[in-house]
Amino acid sequence: MSRVERILESVLERGLQRRSSGAVPAFAPGRVERILVLNKHNIGDVLCTTPALRALRRAFPKAFLAILVSEHCRPVLERNPDLDEIFTYTKSKHRAAWLGLPAQWDLWNVIRRLRARRFDLAVSMGRPSSRSGGWLAYACGAPWRLGYVGPRLHPFGFFLNLGRDPGAITSHEVDGSLELLASIGVPPVGRELTLLPDPEAQATIRRRLREAGCAADARPALVHISNRRESSRWPLTSFAQTADFVQERLGLTALLSWAPGDASNPLFPGDDGKAEAVARQMRTRPILLPTPTLSELIAAMSLSDLILSTDGGPMHMAAALDVPQVVLFGKTGQAHWAPISEKCAILQRGQRVDGIVVEEVEAAVSAVMTRWGRRAGASA
Q: What pLDDT digit, counting tens, does each position of 221-276 carry?
């Protein structure tokens, strides 16, 4: 530790934590009664943390286990059986605020609530941990703080006093989280993701499908057209042609799904206009299924026989729900982010999804439904 780091640690230990430097004892698993996991990233990242939550629950069955995530990720953790509490905050980019001050005030209030819980162990997920993730682990007051330490944390490496070197990041994100826990003696309990749909949201989706004329015995195929990354946006015409294929050739009912809202919304840009454009280009009218909440999107996916999407949060939700899927990858690395599912076909051509042709996708959809279709004897 450099002289600057020692000074910073001494100041924060005395000023914030009210303890002297070096006062924290060696890590003792038997003294861990309250655990906080921090994941400040996106929906897919949070879902990839759920096997680690399961491992922590098994290793510390009587411990109070909580997690801190961005507010928009809350629905993927609600009803998770391994958690006792979910703390959330609103990211600055998702909140209209002068200089982001209300968002920062919100985060400070969350830190105050975390400190009141008196956590023993804080685990900052991510490889390596961001400076803000390390800071939150430190600020919550936990004496033991685990995470992957990298250059971004300098000169605050002491934020994670159980810091681990991420090394060459070659494994999947799920495995990275499990390996981090293994470094303190927590064994893995499977790699499967956990996601439990909201029964009320499922009832809402069923009702809306009935109102849209969807028969009770219909086999829905959810086609999700949205992606926030430009390199992962498939042409609308291609989506339209593939949606026609699943209806005309496979006998499925195409449910068109997208990020709701107007494209000009600076906080949460939506694709309402693109969804209408896809529907207009189709020969067979799909069911347009707007999902104003993430809970409704999860519910719609859970009721589907097939999901087609580009790389992002929806592919991890489909994997966690054990729904057959076809995923179009842009520049996202499969080794790190492929869905944890055997019922999945991945297509990737270079760094952009628009290099993937419709015929490839149709062939993949047919193969997935032949092998993993939810109803035996489905005709192709």
A: 999 999 999 999 999 999 999 999 999 999 999 999 999 998 877 667 899 999 99
- Write the DSSP symbol of residue 96: -
Under 8 Å between Cβ of 283 and 247: no
- For residues 254 and 354, state if they share a domain: yes
pTM of the complete model beyond 0.90: yes
**Cα–Cα distance, 78 to 198 (Å, whole number):** 8
Within-domain flag for 190: no
DSSP H helices, the chain, are 3-15, 43-47, 50-59, 101-117, 131-139, 173-182, 199-211, 236-248, 272-281, 294-302, 313-320, 334-337, 358-372
Q: How many CB atoms lie within 10 A of CB 199?
A: 10
Tell me which residue of 327, 247, 330, 258 sits closest to 286, measured CA to CA. 247
**CA distance linking residue 146 with residue 220, whole number of Å:** 43
What is the rounded CA–CA span in Å between residue 222 and residue 201?
A: 16
Omega before 155 within 30 of 0, i.e. cis:
yes
- Tokens 């209408």 belong to residue: 276
Question: Is 177 in the same domain as 206?
Answer: no
164 and 205 fall within a common domain: no
Number of domains in the chain: 2
Q: In which domain, by residue range, is 215 found? A: 199-372
Q: Round to whole Å and give the CA distance between 55 and 77.
A: 15
* Contact yes or no for 234/356 (Cβ under 8 A): yes
CATH of the domain at 320: 3.40.50.2000
Q: Cis link prior to 128 (omega < 30° from 0)?
A: yes
DSSP-derived letter for residue 309 is: E
Residue 192 within any structural domain of the chain: no
Pair (160, 276) in one structural domain: no
State the greatest distance between any 2 C-alpha atoms of the chain, in Å, as a whole number.
71
Contact between 183 and 189 (Cβ < 8 Å): no
Tokens at 113, concatenated: 């609530």
The CA distance from 52 to 190, in Å, is 9
Domain shared by 155 and 216, yes or no: no
Which residue type sits at 180?
Answer: L
Give 286-311 pLDDT, tens digit per residue.
Answer: 999 999 999 999 999 999 999 999 99
